[in-house]
Write a sequence for this structure.
């Protein structure tokens, strides 16, 4: 509810909100088990 109201007030687009939700879900899934080095290797 709060995020929806905030999005209406400052005109956040749906793509931004989707990416943010995906990012939060990813953090919750990994629960801090990934190290920076592991993430960097996956990006290359």
């Amino acid at each position: 509810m709060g995020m929806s109201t905030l999005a209406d007030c400052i005109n956040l687009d749906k793509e931004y909100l989707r990416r943010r939700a995906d990012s939060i879900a990813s953090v919750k899934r990994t629960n801090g088990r990934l190290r920076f080095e592991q993430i960097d290797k996956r990006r290359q």
User: Anything to note?
Assistant: The chain has three helices and no strands.
